Amino acid sequence: EVQLVESGGGLVQPGDSLRLSCTASGFTFSGSAMSWVRQAPGKDLEWVSAITRGGGSTYYRDSVKGRFTISRDNVKNTLYLQMNSLKADDTAIYFCAKHYGGDYYAGASYSHRGQGTQVTVSA
């Protein structure tokens, strides 16, 4: 059974940093591209960032480029999202998602998503 468990969320002030983690099990983590997606209150789910199976390529939505860094540890089966210079607009539930294949392309669908971790950015 595929399991994705996010952690690391919390309440922070604008300009602060957080690092999210996603621990994966039940599948070959090193064989799957992974993404972070988020859902803000009252809004649709939106893709945030992706990383290919080996970590060699990363992708970001424009609004987080230069502030967020996605990475993975295929030995620990863990996906990370380092979030710096957080803004109120980053407030959302953040989910990690497993893609069907090892590569990523824009709009790629995913097969599984975790339960999410809440990130709240507020003064």
Give a brief rundown of this model:
The chain has 123 residues and is mainly beta. It is 0% helix and 50% strand.
Strand and helix map with partners:
Elements (H helix, E strand, L loop, with lengths): L2 E5 L2 E3 L5 E8 L8 E6 L5 E7 L6 E3 L7 E6 L4 E6 L8 E8 L10 E4 L3 E5 L2
Poorly predicted regions are none
Structural class: mainly beta
The span between the termini is 40 Å
Q: Summarize the biggest pleated sheet.
A: 7 strands, mixed
Share of β-strand residues: over 45%
Order of helices and strands: EEEEEEEEEEE
Average pLDDT works out at 96
Q: In total, how many beta strands?
A: 11
What would the principal axes of the Cα set say about the shape? globular
Number of helices: 0
